[in-house]
Amino acid sequence: MVTEAIIIIILIAVISGVFLREKRYDYAKSTGVLLIMPLAYLFGFALSRPIATLKQVERIDVILVAIIIGLMISCILLGLRCISIKQKKLKLAYLIVNGAFIGIISLIFIYDTLTLLVK
Q1: Which residues contact 29 (CB under 8 A, 6 or more apart)?
Q2: What pTM, to 2 d.p., does this model score?
Q3: In 10 A of CB 61, how many CB atoms?
C-alpha cells in the first residue's frame, strides 16, 4: 500500500501544482487537505520500526495511531477550509466529496494495516 500512497500523493500534488500555476490559490489549498492522509500513512509506516523498538509496541499499533492522527488533522483542516466557502451548496459539496475521499482512503489504509496483523 506504500506504492499506492506515493502515487496518490503525486497525483494530488500535480493537481495542486496546476491550480497554483493558474493562480487559483484557494483551489490549491482545498486539494492540499487531501494530501494529509496518504502522508500520515507513509510517516506512520516509515517511523513504525524505530518507534516500535524504542517503546516496545507493535509496528501495526504505530501505523494505526499515525492513520488516526492523520484522519483527525484532515477533518479539522477540512472544516477550517470550509469556513471560507460562502455558498451553502458549494460548502456542502466540498464537505461531502472531500470527506468521502478522506474517509474511504483512511478505511482502506486501516484495513490494509490490519491485514498485516493477520499475516
Answers
A1: 81
A2: 0.88
A3: 16
Cβ atoms of residues 29 and 81 within 8 Å: yes
Q: Which residue has the cell 490549491?
A: 28
Cα dist from 117 to 59, 65, 104, 108, whole Å? 9, 15, 20, 15
- Give pLDDT tens digits along the chain (119 positions): 889 999 999 999 999 999 999 998 888 888 989 999 999 999 999 999 899 888 888 889 999 999 999 999 999 999 999 888 889 999 999 999 999 999 999 999 999 999 987 76
Contact 12/35 with Cβ under 8 angstroms?
yes
The amino acid sitting at 84 is S
Polymer length in residues for the chain: 119
Place of cell 489504509: 109
